[in-house]
Amino acid sequence: MNKITQILLVDDDADDYIMVRDMINAMPKGQFKLEWEADYNDALPIMQQQKHDIYIIDYVLGEKNGLELIRNAFPNGCSLPIILLTARGRREIDEEALSIGVTEYFDKADIRLPLLERAIRYAINNKRIESELRQSEALFRSLVHSASDYIQVLDIEGNITQTNPSTTRGAGYAEDEIIGKPLTNFLTPPFKTTFEQQFPAILQNGES
């Protein structure tokens, strides 16, 4: 059984609601459920509950705007996808929207059924991937931090971007004395030679 995607539309224009509703209704039956809020103040506490799978927010909401609503609803960022609609296609709006985590940005005049359905699916999938990556990165950082071995994370130039407490305790360096420095600075001559020989192959093939 396919999961029903819960969508919240926040738009103070009833005609726009009808347009989006008709598009949602034309999508595969049983897969999407649309709820509508026309008022900024009514929508705010609903969004703060984060009970929907995706939010479609109009930029113009009376005296306020959709970007204000998003910032106030999710002051610490939102892990759920957001699509911003506007009839004012200005670059500064686009840039601000992206900076606060909006997933997709559309001019209302450009919306068509296939585009909206694809945007909803892609936005949800992309946010899911982002969430999984954050969880994976958090797990990796936890493993590095708790490991008893010396562990260094390097960039492609061989500089240390992350170290762990075992290294700082055992080697006697402060973290800021290690981060940003080439790993070779801390290797004995034989290990330095081996590293310089093998590191290009590791970058290319992922193997030592």
Could you explain how this protein is built, in words?
The protein folds into 2 domains: 5-138, Response regulator (Rossmann fold), CATH 3.40.50; 147-205, Beta-Lactamase (2-Layer Sandwich). Helix content is 49%, strand content 17%. The chain is built from 8 helices and 9 strands. The protein has helices spanning 14-26, 40-48, 66-73, 91-99, 113-146, 165-171, 175-178, 189-205, and strands at residues 5-10, 32-37, 54-58, 60-61, 64-65, 82-86, 104-107, 153-154, 160-162. Helix 2 (40-48) packs parallel to helix 3. The longest helix is centred in the middle third of the chain and has 34 residues, at 113-146. It is elongated, with a radius of gyration of 24 Å.
Helix/sheet category: alpha/beta
Q: Any idea of the CATH topology of the largest domain?
A: Rossmann fold
Question: What is the CATH superfamily label of the largest domain?
Answer: Response regulator
Beta-strand share of residues? 15-25%
> Helical region count?
8
Counted beta strands: 9
Second-tier CATH architecture of the largest domain: 3-Layer(aba) Sandwich
Mean pLDDT comes to 86
Q: Please bin the fraction of helical residues.
A: 40-55%
The largest β sheet comes out as: 5 strands, parallel
Count of the domains: 2
What is the terminal separation in angstroms? 46 Å
Order of helices and strands: EHEHEEEHEHEHEEHHH
Q: Based on CA inertia axes, which overall geometry fits?
A: elongated
Q: What is the CA-based Rg, rounded?
A: 24 Å
Q: For the record, what CATH class of the largest domain applies?
A: Alpha Beta
Strand neighbour order, sheet with most strands: 2-1-3-6-7
Extract low-pLDDT stretches: none
